[in-house]
Every structure is written in structure tokens, then in C-alpha cells.
Amino acid sequence: MQKLLYPVDSKPPFGLTLLLASQHLLAALGGIIAVPLVLGNVLQLPTADTIVLVNAALLVSGIVTIIQCQGVGPIGLRLPSVMGTSFTFVAAALAIGFSEYGVAGILGSSLVGSLVMIIGSFFMPYVRKLFPPVVTGVVVMMIGLSLIPVAVDWFAGGQKGDPNYADPANLAMATFVLVLVVALVQWGKGIFSAAAIVIGILVGYLVALALGWINFDSVKNAELFALPQPLHFGLAFPISGIIGMSIAYLVTIVESSGNFLALGNATQMEITGKHLRGGVLCDGLGSAFAAVMSTTPFSSFSQNIGVISLTGVASRYVVTIMGVLLVLAGVFPVFGALIVSIPMPVLGGAGLMMFAMIIAAGIQMLDKVERSKRNGLIIAISIGCGLAVTTRPELLDKLPSFFKEIFGSGITVGSLLALTLNLILPQDKEHSEK
């Protein structure tokens, strides 16, 4: 196993910590603001309301990340886990948002639904027993495989169908950043290896700036300072919305558990039931806090596990400082706008490598699993069905929305199948005779 440059409880020098925290910020920021932007655009909210959602998302992400990393009593994983708004809740949120209850209904339903996660957290020591190495390996693999399409879209410069999608210039820029990051990780020493991602993105940004690719409109239009606005939209509590959000929270418990187990592998720490309980409890309380602060629910970010796997920097102190940077981005929107100005191909070059490293970690975990017909079936069926949903999400289009809500994520499908098959498939005869 690769030796970590900075283990979980280490504290790099402050200047280096700031640089290392910045690369976590670059990996997560787009995902954190994506959900409020999608909701704002689809629900056709006034620009001022969308800005409230975005600023609150950044601020609460920072606060919950700090608590997740450092812990407060029984709350928190105490590992370098980045928290942010979750796409798992988007379908339920849009259904509520288009009803008479609007955004108030989304936030009220989210607040009540968070009880599912808060209460569920106390059962996590029992849930941990359901994750032997064969299941954990599948979950980690699915996290990486599900992120690859995101990285490919960044690499190509947008979404499929965009006029400049996969433009040769985009591919060349992304490849340049990818090669630079690989070279820094492989041959760089000290800071150059540890901060490979942020250095690669910074060099790519400067090249893009020289080529005239950077659009500073978002920076010019961003407010310099913005105070948080609790209960800006009010709260409403539609029964159907609470049910939909509660289902989404159940799915998030599975996804967050998988992320925490993958994080344990990346940081070379054993994840116990106590870890999972603290992590999921922080997730649920953070989502309740998010509803009060006028933004959408939270979950752990798998993107940042790739940063740790690639650089060997597992310090929770680094990610705590990243949480502080997120809080600053929430109260100084111009800071976040500057990060958002980074062209997608620049992010894509680093992102493809980060997410592929999670897949590699899953392969290494599965390589240690006993080779048997039973384990082979669990791995094949779980990953095959998880990839089916990831690569062809339209597979679920004609099913009731309830099914789409639960099985819309390849990570969830792969995880649930691995858990179920591990429980119901009989042990191989050779294994049981040992």
C-alpha cells in the first residue's frame, strides 16, 4: 500500500496547508454550487433567490465539513471528509418545487426528512457488519466508475450536445493538464507531488488565460460580501414532499456509508460502526441546518476521495482549512465566482485522474477478496447493474418515479445489490468446509 505523505492527524506547514486545501476546494466547488444552480434555473427563480441558495450552500458546506473533520462530541467522522449539496435530492426537490409549496416546501420537507438520517445514524454500528471486503470493494469501485462520466464531460468541455463538446482544443487542454498532474505525482518531490492537482489546474488556468478562454463576467457580477439569510424562503411541510425527501435520505445513508468506507481505504484508517454513526449523524444534522439556512440537503463528496488517493495527503487539518475557505466563499461570493471561472477542460484533466484513482483503489480491495464463484457473482452482478444505470440512466424512464428516485444512482444500485447478494447467496462449499 502506498505510504501517505500526510496521515490523518498530521499538520503540514500553514502555507502548504492552504495550497493543499485549495486543491480540495477546486475538486468540490463545482459540485457544491451545481445543485442550487440547477434548482434555480429549472424552477425559474429570480436571480437574487438563486444567489441565496448558492451562498448558503457554500457557507453551510464549509461549516459541516469542519465539524465532520474535527468532530463535536458524538457528531462527525473525524476524517478528511468534504460535505456538499447532493444530487440525490434533486428529483424530489423539483417535484415539490413545481407544486404550490415551492422552495418553502423543499426546505420544510428536507428539514423533517433529515430525521430519517439522524435516527438512522444510531443503527450504523449494525450496518457496518453488512460491509465485508467484497461489498466494500464493489462500493468503492462503483463510486469511481459513477464519477468517470462527470470527468469525461469536464474533459470534453461541457455537456453532450453543447456546440463545443469534445472540441480538439478542449481535449488538448485537458490532456495537457492530465499529463502535467501525472508527471508531478510520479516524479515531483515534496510540495510538487502533494499539490500536483492544484499546480496542474493553476498552470492550465494560466494557459487558458493566455488563450483568451477565461470569462470574468461572473466575477464582475458577483457581490463582494453577502450575509447568510436564514429562512429566506420560509418553510412548508407537504406530506408527499416529506415522504419523497425521506426516501432520498435513505438512499443517501447507503451512499454516504460507501463514501466513508472508501475514505477509510484512502486514508488507511479502519472505519468502525462508531465512525459511521458520527459521519451519518453529522450528515443528517448538517442537512437540517442547511434547510434552516435556505439551501438543499447535504452528503459526503466522493470527488475528494480521489484527491487523497492521488496525492497521499490524508490530513483532516487540510480539509478543515478547506472548510474555512468554503465559509469565506459563502460570505464573499466574488471568491467563489473566481473559482467557477476555471474552464471545464482544465478541471477535466485533473478530474479524470482523480476519479480513476478511486477505481484503482476498488480493484486493489477486490484483489484481496477470496476468489470464489459466490464472490465472483456478487462483484459481476453488482458492478454490471450499477454501470447499466450509470451509462444508460434512461433505462428507468418508463418506471414509476418512486423507482427512479431510489435506483437513479449507479452507486446505490451497485451497493444495494452487493449488500443483498452477500446476505442471500450461500457460502461456497469449499469455503464452508474450511
UniProtKB/TrEMBL annotation:
The keyword Cell membrane applies. GO terms for molecular function: xanthine transmembrane transporter activity. GO terms for cellular component: plasma membrane. It is a multi-pass membrane protein. It holds the Pfam family Xan_ur_permease. It comes from the Bacteria. Keywords: Cell membrane, Membrane, Transmembrane, Transmembrane helix, Transport. PROSITE patterns: XANTH_URACIL_PERMASE (PS01116). Belongs to the nucleobase:cation symporter-2 (NCS2) (TC 2.A.40) family. This is Purine permease.
